[in-house]
Amino acid sequence: MKSKAQNGAGRGGHDRGNEGRFAYEGLDRVIHERARLSILTSLITNPKGVSFGDLKQLCSLTDGNLSRHLRVIEKAKMVEIVKGTDRNRPLTICRITPAGRKRYLEYLATLEQVVRDAEKGSKDAPATDLLRNLTPSRA
After folding, report:
1. Chain-centre distance of CA 68, in angstroms?
2. pLDDT for residue 7
3. Which residue has the higher pLDDT, 130 or 37?
4. Pick the residue with more confidence: 42 or 136?
5. pTM for the model
6. Out of 2, 75, 102, 125, which could bridge 6 as a Cys pair, Cβ 3.0 to 4.6 Å?
7. Residue 11 half-sphere exposure, CB side, CA atoms within 13 Å?
8. At 97, phi and psi to the nearest 5?
9. Domains of the chain
């Protein structure tokens, strides 16, 4: 999914009154959670897969938290989980799927647009200028 800015809407601030200009529809709720973002980033940098134990350490998660978040992204078909054995010990390998890779990269493109918009906004009107024009509210 792309933001309206990526689709060409809102360029130069002229899109039907800038309706939804900063809605960032590409901020995928499945990914846009710290633990799941950590998991997917770990997996995209290790395309052959990562063991459950290593993934747990890379993302600083407990067994239960990692399992819960993996279920969410597995249900979304973004990761595959393969259970097997290594020297008679259980081994779980997690891999990002091609669909997961695509969805993750689309998500990153949206985040990059957020950063570009924020940088542009901070150059156009420094926060100190905006704050000078505000009057204190009375509660």
Report:
1. 17
2. 46
3. 37
4. 42
5. 0.71
6. 2
7. 4
8. -85, 165
9. 28-109 (1.10.10.10)
